């Protein structure tokens, strides 16, 4: 699993580095990757022949860190490579969340272009981003000419080749392209935007007053056969225009036909892989596997589904241990093409941003208090930044605006 910042030249045929890798692969075949830096740990797979869809246990010196269930299928299966063909490439942590990167690449000489597909997943296995990079560009070259037959003999030759991307510890993707015809090498990087806040003056007061009247009761969804897969809207009450408090129905919780529901999804293959004992894992990792079997949300996590005018657009899983209490659409930002979803969990609350087709755009955590103490309000209107009335800093509340910026770039107005 990738690391940027250190490099060492070695002979790939015989070298102490490759010897060590070969020994690890033979003695510890379930070890997918390990990091050199301290407090990073090792990643163990539950599959003998692993891919990016294989569950991983992350531990550091015998201490459990996290569980990755593997890349989940997207709603549009026609656009994705088979999960079993995607290989793990890297892992990184951004804003306290661990992410995983997988890659699928094709090579050949029959087509003009071959591509490599990059997949970025969160800790729950949701595909957040997909990226398509050129892998190989071929061109026709003349090998010879038959003057009498007026015929040219040609063959495909690689004109450009893109190396396998490398991923930094913060998620920036670097890749190099070698152009054989121009005789040069070019290195590029791709990064993602993140949301950052800063103090702001009072704004969108009318929307904030409306949000202050909203209350919810935590949903209670089991994973028994009768409830598993059954989606429900959260129990929310609000004060209507007549000043009366009433229970919200689906029409009240939706925005322009966009609506969020909550359910539990059973992944029996995860339970099966956790319970089997054929994989040669270290004893400490085996104990972690046994513990994970007893966590109900590992094989049956909480899921939210986003629906719109065209039906269900996508589902979005939450990691093991997370319990979704309420989820609802706050706004449809028409100018930006964004659907703003607020999700309240037991120990934190976050904002999810999707486009109108259901593709994930971004997310940020705006509160880390227990849900019973949580008072923070987030409102949105098209053409304006997301506004938060933050009560974590004090009872009176502080107005914050959230803006998308490039990661590791200081946010200034």
How would you sum up this structure in a few lines?
The protein is mainly β. The chain has helices spanning 16-27, 205-212, 250-253, 268-275, 283-293, 296-299; strands spanning 31-34, 42-45, 56-60, 63-68, 87-94, 97-105, 113-122, 127-146, 151-162, 166-167, 173-179, 184-190, 193-199, 215-217, 235-239, 245-247, 259-264, 302-308, 311-317, 324-333, 338-345, 349-355, 360-367, 377-379, 386-390, 398-406. The chain contains six helices and 26 strands.
Descriptive report:
- This protein is mostly beta strands.
- 11% of the residues lie in helices and 44% in strands.
- It is built from six helices and 26 strands.
- Residues 1-18 have low confidence and may be disordered.
Helical/strand content category: mainly beta
The proportion of residues forming helix, as a percent range, comes to 10-25%
According to DSSP, the number of beta strands is 26
Estimate the global geometry from the Cα principal axes.
Answer: globular
What about the largest sheet? 8 strands, antiparallel
Mean pLDDT, nearest integer? 84
**Helix segment tally:** 6
